Amino acid sequence: LTVGVRYRERVALLAFWDQNFSGSDDDGHWGTGDIHASARVWLTRCLWAEAGGGASMLGYKPPPQISTTITRDWSPGFNAGVGLDVIETPRVAIGLFGRYTRATFHGQDLQHISIQVELMGRR
């Protein structure tokens, strides 16, 4: 989920929440989450880059038969991304982008790369 405001014609300030979980009910679920703020700059009319940071989370949810609660660990994180607005109208843009996030938990680097489709409304 991303929300933001266009600050100038080629600059936007954004906040996003991204969460990913994997695993099975038998083994439990590991997950990551990011709550970051970013600045996005359009390099051309359709091509943009962004960078920012915020709080990153590493979590573990045990299998249902274990009565332990979800364990979460928080750390500062960094993100960078590039994207392309594929379809652009005065009210909406549809784009493709890739985002890289990184955080360190107890000396262990956790890095995540995602490729996403974006639907952005405009006023």
Record the SSE blueprint.
Blueprint: E1 2-8, E2 11-24, E3 28-42, E4 47-61, E5 71-88, E6 92-105, E7 108-121
Antiparallel strand pairs: 1-2, 2-3, 3-4, 4-5, 5-6, 6-7
Question: Could you write a compact summary of the structure shown?
Answer:
By secondary structure, the protein is mainly β.
What does this 3D model show about the protein?
The protein is mainly beta. The protein has no helices and seven strands.
Which regions contain 5 or more consecutive residues with pLDDT less than 50?
none
Strand composition percent: over 45%
Spatial strand arrangement across the major sheet: 1-2-3-4-5-6-7
Tally of separate helices: 0
Q: What kind of sheet is the major sheet?
A: 7 strands, antiparallel
**Strand pairing plus helix content: what structural class?**
mainly beta
Radius of gyration in whole Å, from Cα?
A: 17 Å
Helix amount: under 10%
Overall form: elongated
- What is the element string, with H for helices and E for strands? EEEEEEE
Ends apart, CA distance between termini = 18 Å
Query: How many strand units?
Result: 7
Overall mean pLDDT score?
A: 88
List keywords for this structure.
single chain, 123 residues, mainly beta, 7-stranded antiparallel beta sheet, 7 strands, 0% helix
